Automatic annotation (TrEMBL):
Gene3D superfamilies: Leucine-rich Repeat Variant. InterPro entries: ARM-like (IPR011989), ARM-type_fold (IPR016024), EFR3-like_ARM (IPR049152), EFR3_Homologs (IPR051851). One of its GO terms (biological process) is protein localization to plasma membrane. Belongs to the EFR3 family. It holds the Pfam family EFR3_ARM. GO terms for cellular component: plasma membrane. This is Protein EFR3 homolog cmp44E isoform X2.
């Protein structure tokens, strides 16, 4: 019998004999290394036998597993690993791989945890091999399902080991399939719905901090690493396939409240994703917020907080329409929140604050020019003041808070760029809103954009004391131009705002805005306009009968506070001395005319004396202070203080005839309605620009006389001449004015005639065929021969 067996074994194929020889007599001894080397050499020498070797090894391992001889099955798996590593470059490897994967599947199907771990390690080794010829028919459905189930293992003894093996297996599947478009689509929904929840389940089961020791990797740390790899490999069309099961997992396991894990997960996604696709994550999260509009306020708040934490990462890649699209979505959620609730609960208020913070974080990571566009976009969505319902007022307040959040992120350099007309005008309209909280938010927006030197806290309260911590620098030329153009509009809105409420917080907010305006824009060219503004506040307190007693006292306190402030920042000592005299007089007779502002509730029933004209700020005294300081006071002397609810532009309240007649008188010329002085340059014809002519002899005495102030008699004559010119131009007929100013235009008219005659001659030479038409036209009186007086030039 022994001889017969030996004779039969010699008749078996050589590859089977080589495979049989690698198994020891005692399974505990492990793989026979010398025989394994012979088998490897044979496989390399005869690659056509590789598929048969793999099939035979699979058959032997199957028999051993069925007979519970697990050691022999492990030896067979080890042999297949070695053959795979040695022969991976062979063209016939595909057939061997089929047997290899069947072997791995067989081991994974068994209940023995050691076989599962070994099979997983073998699959990971296979996944790291780059095959030259991909297999089109190979599928990994079983492995995805099996590895995902291992990730949820609850085995008492080897739980962590099995979960680690499952995560490693999923990582191997991802690496094997993601890089090859010809194999199975790993991004299909049925696969992602198994992979992503398995990773998240392990991430939430332990500490989320990365493990530095690579030899002691925990399931949460490895799951996070695999999730990073999966998201990093996702293209634009596949990123939503990852996000959908992620959001579903968070919903099903109620992981939004608290939202620590959700924030951590989405930060991983935003950091790992390709930068150009980060906008997709924000968009998907917003859509999920849309789908949860009926959820509890806490859930929506947590979603909004997660959005605010990750939106800054996407801001750098969002430009143009995509940036405004995100802003519009956030504003839509705010409007929905306001419209669906009759009363704002604390939870709903937290949700709105989270959305506003998200908007602010998003805007903070954009350049300043885009922040202006975002603020303008938000301003255009604010309901008009004509809508006075409670819901509209709430919406106005919420949207303006959003605008404030963006405004606090903006670094103002030039007021002209920070306040474009399309943004400033509707903002100033909202400053006149009847709702006190709305006006206060508008004031905070103006303060955020006006405060370039961090003076907002310093000027937060009304005071007549010095501000030692005040920071200031002279305004630039562009800021002065902005003040001349729009400063009057801002100050008019401030006066209207101050007259709407006697609340201390509302008046203090308006004072803060006015004080910042003065500190940032005060100079010799603007100080007169600011003084008219201060006089306007005082005039409202004195003349508007609808204001209460406490309200009037507060306005008087604000006016003296602003006067002291402008005296200090402008450095006009005469003005400061006058302001201090008023302050001392009020301290002796009427302390209610001084800061701090009075609380209406505390002062109810008390009688306050308001008939104190000698304690008011005097306009003539202010003009004398400016003149004594060597400054021009004409605008202050001739201009009217700001009035309440003034609809026209305060900076252009006077007739253009008056301003031009002022130019004629200021030029110290002897011209009247029948005399033209011949000075038709651009300076004299520009509105608001005055030209002072020097004497013909340019010596020291002549220049001294030219710079000297005119006497009272000369001033009175100039005023009479001015009024006469104004009456004549207002009441006279146009033809009469042309006839009376016609003679002094001879010089200009003759020059124009010469120029047009020369052009007519050239036209006759070059176009002889139109000679008759030209002669006929020359007989008519050209329109340019009509003389207009200088006062009608613009």
């Amino acid at each position: 019998m022994p001889g017969c067996c030996g004779c039969c074994s010699a008749l078996r194929p050589r590859y089977k004999r080589l495979v049989d020889n690698i198994f020891p007599v005692n399974p505990e001894d492990g793989l026979v290394k010398s025989n394994m080397e012979k088998l490897t050499f044979y496989s390399l020498s005869s690659p056509d036998k590789l598929d048969r070797i793999g099939e035979y090894l699979y058959q032997k391992a199957t028999k051993d597993i069925n007979r519970k001889r697990y050691k022999l099955a492990e030896i067979a798996m080890e042999a297949m690993d070695l053959l795979l590593q040695a022969c991976h470059a062979q063209t016939t490897l595909n057939l061997f791989v089929e047997s290899f994967l069947r072997m791995v599947q067989k081991l994974l199907e068994d209940s023995n945890p050691n076989l599962k771990i070994m099979a997983t390690n073998s699959f990971v080794k296979f996944a790291n091999i780059n095959e030259d010829t991909p297999s089109y028919h190979r599928r990994y459905d079983f492995f995805i399902s099996k590895f995902s189930s291992m990730c949820h293992s609850d085995a008492a003894s080897m739980r962590d080991s099995l979960r680690l093996a499952g995560i490693k297996g999923l990582q191997g599947v991802i690496r094997k399939t993601v890089s090859d478009d010809l194999v199975e689509n790993i991004w299909a929904a049925e696969h992602m719905e198994k992979i992503v929840p398995s990773l998240l389940f392990n991430m939430q089961s332990g500490d989320l901090t990365p493990v530095e020791d690579a030899t002691n990797v925990t399931p949460p740390a490895l799951a996070e690493e695999v999730l990073r790899e999966l998201v990093g490999r996702a293209s634009f069309g596949h990123i939503r396939s990852v996000l959908k099961p992620l959001l579903t997992h968070l919903d099903r396991h109620e992981l939004w409240v608290p939202n620590t894990f959700a924030i951590h997960t989405f930060r991983i996604v935003m950091i790992s994703i390709q930068p150009q696709y980060s906008y997709t994550v924000v968009e998907t999260l917003m859509q999920h917020l849309d789908n949860n509009f009926k959820s509890s306020p806490k859930t929506r708040t947590s979603l909004a907080v997660v959005l605010s934490k990750i939106i800054a990462i996407a801001a750098g890649e969002s430009v143009g329409p995509s940036a405004l699209d995100i802003i519009n979505n956030l504003l839509t959620h705010l409007r929905t929140s306001v419209s669906t609730t009759s009363e704002i609960t604390p939870e709903e208020s937290q949700y709105q604050e989270a959305l506003i913070n998200a908007l602010g974080e998003f805007a903070n990571h954009h350049p300043d020019y885009q922040k202006i566009e975002i603020m303008l976009f938000i301003m255009n969505t604010v309901p008009d003041l004509s809508k006075k319902s409670k819901g509209d007022q709430m919406l106005q307040n919420i949207l303006l808070k959003s605008l404030l959040k963006v405004g606090t992120q903006y670094s103002t350099v030039s007021f002209e760029k920070a306040f474009p007309a399309s943004f400033l005008q509707p903002l100033l309209k909202m400053a006149r809103a009847p709702h006190d909280p709305t006006r206060m938010v508008v004031m905070q927006i103006l303060q955020a954009l006006l405060d370039r030197h961090q003076n907002e806290q310093v000027l937060s309260s009304v005071s007549v004391k010095p501000y030692p911590a005040l920071s200031q620098e002279p305004p630039s030329r562009s800021d002065i131009i902005f003040t001349h153009k729009y400063g009057a509009n801002i100050m008019q809105a401030l006066i209207d705002s101050m007259a709407l409420s006697d609340r201390v917080d509302a008046l203090s907010s308006s004072f803060n805005t006015a004080a910042l305006l003065i500190v940032e824009m005060s100079c010799n060219e603007t100080v007169q306009e600011f003084l008219l503004f201060i006089l306007g506040i005082q005039q409202v307190a004195n003349t508007v009968d609808t204001l209460g007693t406490v309200h009037r006292c507060s306005l008087h306190a604000i006016s003296i506070g602003l006067l002291v402030l402008i005296s200090r920042v402008s450095g006009i000592n005469n003005l400061l001395e006058y302001a201090q005299k008023i302050v001392e007089a009020r301290r002796e007779e009427a302390t209610h005319y001084l800061p701090p502002l009075l609380e209406p509730k505390k002062m109810s029933g008390k009688i306050l004396n308001l008939s104190l004209p000698h304690l008011a700020i005097d306009k003539l005294a202010l003009g004398e202070c400016l003149q004594n300081a060597g400054m021009d006071a004409q605008r202050l002397n001739t201009g009217a203080p700001y009035a309440l609810n003034q609809t026209d532009h305060p900076g252009h309240r006077h007739s253009w005839v008056e301003s031009v007649s002022n130019q004629l008188t200021q030029r110290n010329s002897s011209a009247d309605l029948t005399v033209y002085n011949g000075d038709g340059d651009s300076v004299s014809s520009s509105p608001g620009v005055c030209k002072k002519l020097l004497a013909p002899e340019f010596n020291f005495d002549a220049m001294k006389r030219a710079l000297a102030e005119p006497t009272e008699t000369v001033k009175r004559e100039q005023r009479e001449r001015q009024m006469q010119i104004v009456r004549t131009f207002r009441e006279g007929e146009f033809d009469d004015l042309i006839r009376r100013t016609e003679p002094k235009h001879d010089l200009i008219q003759n020059r124009l005639n010469e120029l047009f005659n020369s052009l007519a001659v050239e036209r006759q030479i070059t176009q002889s065929d139109t000679k008759a038409a030209s002669l006929q036209a020359s007989n008519e009186k050209p329109i340019y021969e009509t003389n207009f007086p200088e006062l009608f030039y613009y």
